[in-house]
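Budget justification aside, the reviewers requested a transparent look at the raw inputs and outputs of the sequence design task funded under Objective 1. We therefore reproduce one unedited record. The lines immediately below are the structure tokens for a 312-residue chain.
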């Protein structure tokens, strides 16, 4: 007997595109609850810089995977998958539909496709490989990777040191190419049958929205929020504090940046992040792109998805 898969609607895309507002409207209309896919919204006390849902929005539609841990916790994709999967099961069992909403592509991929059974990070080995990259140059590590895992090397740019090091780390830890492990994992059936929607808008308009959003965050008290995190004992070395908005404000508080420069850096770094998100979701063939203004077409597509699945 074929096992029934979870039906979820994914609304992904770059930061500041307007995902959250649209998602609340759609979820309300389709009787769904929202599971956030945002790597910063999982942290308590980090509200303004992560653009968490407002109280009004959470009253309209229940939100999950928000305020899970405190900032000192290193929350990983595997942790997100565990938490989000429980939420999917709970929401489904209550007869509600599920919307996954956010821009952290790795979290979405971890939930939908699972995580391949590779080893966790080895800090000592990673530091050794990084030191080699600095001493010998990135190309030396890339050529080593090509010698042991040509499949992965062909997919990784020689200057992408982080991915090269991860691939070498897996090989040195397991004796097997990471591409081989990925291939084996890909054969495992997913628990999900998702509708993947990526939301975009004109790039010039998006850049203007990012500038306005950062200004709104500053007016809303982003600097005070980061100061309060310091007062609670959370310092700039934490992974959570290295996220957009927080690292720049921390730099200002620590005297490394003038406030105007810190704000300019947030805007610039957010635009760069949005560009990477366009690339991430653009490279995933499962996503169908819609302009954020094509609300009617998006609704039609979601209705078709539910209708098709109701007929399964």
């Amino acid at each position: 007997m074929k096992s029934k898969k979870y039906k979820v609607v994914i609304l992904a895309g770059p930061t500041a595109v307007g995902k959250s507002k649209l998602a609340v409207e759609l979820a309300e209309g389709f009787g769904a609850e929202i599971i956030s896919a945002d790597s910063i919204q999982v942290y308590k006390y980090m509200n303004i810089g992560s653009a968490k849902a407002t109280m009004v929005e959470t009253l309209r539609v229940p939100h999950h995977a928000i305020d899970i841990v405190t900032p000192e916790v290193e929350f990983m994709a595997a942790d997100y998958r565990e938490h989000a999967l429980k939420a999917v099961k709970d929401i489904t069992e209550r007869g509600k539909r599920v919307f996954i909403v956010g821009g952290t592509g790795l979290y979405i991929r971890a939930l939908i496709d699972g995580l391949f059974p590779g080893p966790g990070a080895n800090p000592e080995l990673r530091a050794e490989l990084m030191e080699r990259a600095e001493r010998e140059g990135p190309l030396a590590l890339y050529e080593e990777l090509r010698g042991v895992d040509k499949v992965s090397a062909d997919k990784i740019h020689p200057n992408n040191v982080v991915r090269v090091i991860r691939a070498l780390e897996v090989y040195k830890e397991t004796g097997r190419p990471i591409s081989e492990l990925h291939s084996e994992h890909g054969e495992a059936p997913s628990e999900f049958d998702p509708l993947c929607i990526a939301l975009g808008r004109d790039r010039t308009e998006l850049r203007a929205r990012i500038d306005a959003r950062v200004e709104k965050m500053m007016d809303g008290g982003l600097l005070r929020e980061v100061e309060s995190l310091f007062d609670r004992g959370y310092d700039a070395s934490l992974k959570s504090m290295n996220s957009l908005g927080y690292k720049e404000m921390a730099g200002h508080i620590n005297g490394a940046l003038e406030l105007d420069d810190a704000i300019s850096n947030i805007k610039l770094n957010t635009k760069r992040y949005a560009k990477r998100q366009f690339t991430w979701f653009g490279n995933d063939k499962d996503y169908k792109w819609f302009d954020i203004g094509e609300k009617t077409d998006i609704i039609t597509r979601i209705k078709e998805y539910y209708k098709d699945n109701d007929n399964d």
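The radius of gyration is 21 Å. Residues 8-114+190-310 form a domain with the Rossmann fold fold (CATH 3.40.50.300). Computational costs for records of this kind are itemized in the attached budget.
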